[in-house]
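Suppose a colleague, Dr. K., hands you the sequence of a protein chain of 176 amino acids and asks what its three-dimensional shape might be. Before reaching for any lab equipment, you can write down a predicted structure in token form. Begin with the sequence itself:
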Amino acid sequence: MLEYKITPLDLVIHTLTDPILLGIMTIIYLIFGYFLFKIKSKKVRIIILVILIALPMLYILPILVNTLLGWQWYGYELRDHKLHIKAWPVDEIIDLNDSKVFLTKSEEWRPKIRVFGIGMHEIGMGYFKLENGIKAVVFRYENSEEFVVINASGKYYVIIHPGVDRLYREIKGEEK
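The predicted structure, expressed as tokens, is then:
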């Protein structure tokens, strides 16, 4: 059995430290902070203060809801030549017996546009359109030069993380 899992806490940390989100949050805080000091109405000031406090919680709310709904980990488990992949919103088990699996460095298999899922600087999960135009399920945690591509009956899966070549070797080792 081989597994590569990240926890909801990893997602929360990456969400709160994502450079793009931090930039957006800084701008929002500056704007609301300016109005907090300019506005004289106590009611409006309290509303602005509540928004400033609640804003970070709104960013991590989807992760907390998913955790309550049973998403205790994200990533994959390889067992008995079946790959259980959890890349929100995807939770599927792939039978690797009838699948084509390859390890590549080719840019054409890299995720380009997120269609539905999570996309941040270090994490990408869900449905993505690849550089070659194919729609695929992607699990990316940090970046790697190499990545595994799986074609299971015409449905594509791309797995990217440091050390992903170990997954490829494990899959190919079980086929022999």
